[in-house]
Amino acid sequence: QVQLVESGGGLVQAGGSLKLSCAASGRTFSSGAMAWFRQAPGKEREFVGAISWSGGVPVYADSVRSRFTISRDTVYLQMNNLKPEDTAVYYCAAVRAGWSKAWDLYDYWGRGTQVTVSS
Predict the structure, then answer these.
(1) Contact by Cβ (8 Å): 35, 106
(2) Residue 55 has what pLDDT?
């Protein structure tokens, strides 16, 4: 079993930065991945980025590439140059093997942290 707890969300002005953290406890999987998703009101849960349990090169959604950075230590999500359309609940997720952009393939989820970007 894996427990995930997100932190670091809040209110920020457009152009600002926030750093989210995902603390993982319990067992880990050598071949799986951890990912960030987000969900805005009335919208589908959206892939943000992912990184393998063992580290390596992260994968990002086109909408956040060059603005967001994922690092494996504690699975941080550094968000720069935030835009109002980045407003959403951000979730940390883990999958036991492989990785995917599809949220329903992930095995474990945190409760999410709210990010609000004002214009």
Answers:
(1) yes
(2) 77
- In terms of Cα–Cα distance, which of 9, 14, 7, 18 is closest to 117? 14
Task: Find tokens 């079993």 and name the residue.
Answer: 1
Cα(47)–Cα(44) distance, integer angstroms: 10
Q: Return all residues near 22 (Cβ < 8 A) that are at least 6 apart.
A: 4, 5, 6, 34, 36, 74, 75, 76, 77, 92, 110
Q: Is the pLDDT of residue 73 over 70?
A: no
Six-digit token string for 2 = 């894996």
Give the rounded distance of the alpha carbon of 11 from its chain centre.
17
| Contact (CB, 8 A) for 118 and 93 | no
Which pLDDT band holds residue 2 (cuts at 50, 70, 90)? confident
